[in-house]
Amino acid sequence: MSLTIYQMAYSPFCIPITAALRACGVPFETKEIPNWDRSELLRLTDGAYYQVPVLIHDGRVITESSGDSEDIARYVDQHFAKGQLFPERLDGLQSIVIDFLSEDVEFNTFRLLDPHTLDQITDPVARGLFLRHKERKFGRGCVEQWRRDAASIRAEADRLLGRFEVTLRHSAFLFGNSPVYSDFLLYGILGNLTYGGHHSLNADQNALKEWSGRMERMSLT
Predict the structure, then answer these.
(1) What is the pLDDT of residues 22-44, one digit of tens each?
(2) What percent of the chain stands above pLDDT 90?
(3) Contacts of 30 by beta carbon, 8 Å cutoff, 6+ apart
(4) Strands of the 54-57 sheet, one edge to the other
(5) Rounded distance, CA 45 to CA 54, Å?
(6) Is the pTM of this model over 0.90?
């Protein structure tokens, strides 16, 4: 069996896939894709797709069908996790949480990391392409604006994360005693926030810290 994940290591949407595969005990390889050079993804998909993650399973290329799909996560669930990531009893309810995490929470957390990511790019062409990718979507000067607004962005991120902090004070995982995809997605978003050590969870986010430890030790086998 051959399994490769094309990823950006700090991506909040790549981290959940690799974490879920590790929890399933599935061996896999990763290939890092620079944010500013996605040509390898375009070659893999005959020019049709350039986002991460992309999963190659025994020669089959799996991508997302839309910007808000969970096709790759559901593929992992079907082939490796035995339905534990998307249990039928949570249909609908989990979708609400996934949408909230991927739209509202992630919108704040990735903006905290991006200025630091930019600072580490020394090549002027790579730096310019990274900025172009961001500014096409969010407007000219967006990364420097996020740098200036970091305190207010973090405050809003913490406000949104507060409802998960409260939930996890009363439950081992978001929906009970075992993790589902929502847990792995939250784990990815926090992994993105804390990537490189530029940010960390606050002193009053103890439940999230303890939950993160459980996620790191989690096995779905």
Answers:
(1) 999 999 999 999 999 999 999 99
(2) 95
(3) 4, 5, 6, 7, 9, 18
(4) 29-32, 3-7, 54-57, 60-62
(5) 9
(6) yes
